[in-house]
Design brief:
- The structure is a homodimer.
- Chain A is of the alpha/beta class.
- In chain A, helix 8 links the parallel strand 10 and strand 11.
- The longest helix of chain A is centred in the C-terminal third of the chain and has 21 residues.
- Chain A starts with a strand and ends with a helix.
- Chains A and B meet through helix 1, helix 3, helix 4, strand 13 and helix 10 of A and helix 1, helix 3, helix 4, strand 13 and helix 10 of B.
Chain lengths: 328, 328
């Protein structure tokens, strides 16, 4: 008996979830829901219906977990609480500052409806959060460091594209190796924004645009680039397509802490990800937590949860006995 | 109101737990128990009694969590089930092959007594197991790699010391950098024992011992050294004391996996530890799980648990609200 999954939203993340479900033999994709006209959408899985969002209520008893693949800015604040009334849900809400509010909105609905809603699943928030939390609990006397990259920042790429004269652009966030090394050496550096990451931009200009002006506008853009050492490369549209069409990402979470009667011993805990595809990896984390949502719901649990609230074994399709025998 | 902790066994691990308790303001050390004559033992914490193991039953209602700091070979198989009758307990049982049996022995006692027993806590088993499990759940299509070191292996050091003519010895297990690099590059290598780790030995000879014979005995010792590239250095007792008296350790857990409709994207999840003191870090993990044992018991839970069964938030002294606001 498979876990019946629905996907709402068929962008990069939705397609990633579709792939992830295929890799988990205890899961089955039942339907993909879209705001577009369903007939305009072709999905990868054969014989799975594409439906309009308006049909979602008809699926109430036919789907165990609805995976919400919308954006954090406007989609998820509405969708997660709306659909937690009907289904167990998982989302990847990633506006860190608004997580407490999102949690309490969703928790109220899920508790009333008797569903399980797992929010902010992915790698940051998600696996990075988990590693920050475990490392903080283990080493209370220490410092946290999170580095992102090397990877494509969609927000920064979009910011460049909005500049007059820019036809297309990709921006990579890159951790500064010297800073990482210092942290790994237990030096507990205080790092400024500029010392932690550099930004590298690949820009395609519109015909006749002024390269010097565009470069200056990028490098001086407040919040996005002004506080960083930024490199700008002007390249052709062909080169951008050929060499920069992937969506890689990753990063590093470190905690540097002391133990001993007088703090005489140092320890470094490091977690890192190197991802060819940011959305597919996020989707893979979400699929594992969809399994957890299903199991928790079967146990009669309800309400909103985050990665902090869920025992690791719920993520696995192995039995507790198998886990103890093979992975402990 | 502090969590009242007892320590049974005052070797390296017990002393490490004592230090860890001092770093956690919600915990309080109530007593240290020893098989030795209590008056022969001086502990670091002022005004805490040292008691004989025979007095343990008198402490039944005065201790919330008893931390068992004995060895896995003979102590813990008896102690954990014995003391789970009286207390919530945490142990660091690390004989991987015997974990299922230990679990079921302890589970029966703890369920009957209404206590929580958390076994096999530390870093391997422990944090490494957790990372293997999370990574397997996220990337079902992939390969696992665990490398240990650079660090002191107590078992291998002991094996050298048993050789005729050896006065003292320290053995370091060292991961092979080329193997690590290949895994990180997503090459999914099949690695032999020899390709994963090397062994480096620092040996102090007895007066007049035959160095060539000792070196040959070490390098050809079955299971311990014969399958590895082993280097032997003969040094003076002073040099051993000066440069090799620490107990550093650490290692790397990696999972290399594929996602995408046709497995076209690769991902590397890596967790690593670099520890100045193996027992103090293990003790720090144990302290966090002692908090979890206390909280779970307060909730009315009972029975044997491992790191797989415990939601991360139980390890922290922050509230769920604080965790969501600061670490998610």
């Amino acid at each position: 008996m498979s876990i019946r999954i629905g996907i709402l939203g068929y962008g990069n993340l939705g397609r990633g979830v579709e792939c992830a479900i295929r890799q988990n033999e205890d899961m089955e994709l039942c339907a993909v829901f879209t705001r577009r006209a369903p007939e305009t959408l072709t999905i990868q899985t054969p014989d799975v219906p594409v439906c309009n969002v308006n049909d979602i209520p008809d699926w109430k008893d036919k789907i165990d977990v609805m995976i919400l693949c919308g954006g954090s800015a406007t989609d998820l604040p509405e969708q997660t609480k709306k659909y937690a009334e009907l289904f167990n849900v998982v989302d990847s809400f990633d506006t860190h500052a608004n997580i407490p509010e999102h949690f309490s909105n969703v928790d109220a609905v899920a508790k009333a409806a008797g569903t399980v809603a797992i929010i902010s699943v992915g790698w940051d928030p998600g696996m990075f959060s988990l590693n920050r939390m475990y490392a903080n609990a283990i080493l209370p006397d220490g410092n946290d460091y999170t580095f992102w990259g090397k990877g494509v920042s969609q927000g920064h790429s979009d910011a460049i594209r909005r500049i007059d004269g820019v036809k297309d652009a990709k921006q990579y966030t890159i951790p500064v190796e010297a800073a990482l090394t210092s942290v790994r050496n237990g030096e507990n550096p205080k790092l400024s924004t500029r010392e932690k990451h550099t930004r590298e931009c690949f820009v395609v200009l519109e015909e006749g645009a002024d390269a010097a002006r565009v470069e200056s506008e990028i490098k001086n853009m407040p919040n996005y680039f002004a506080d960083y050492d930024t490199t700008v490369h002007f390249i052709s549209e062909e080169e951008l397509k050929k060499n920069h069409s992937g969506i890689p990402h990753g990063g590093f979470v470190l905690r540097s802490g002391k133990t001993g009667w007088n703090g005489e011993n140092s320890h470094i805990i490091e977690y890192s990800l190197k991802l060819d595809s940011n959305p597919e990896f996020t989707a893979s984390v979400i699929a594992a937590y969809a399994r957890a949502a299903y199991k928790l719901s079967k146990e009669g649990q309800k309400g909103c949860k985050t990665v902090f609230d869920i025992a690791p074994a719920y993520l696995s399709n192995k039995t507790p006995e198998e886990l103890r025998a093979t992975l402990l």
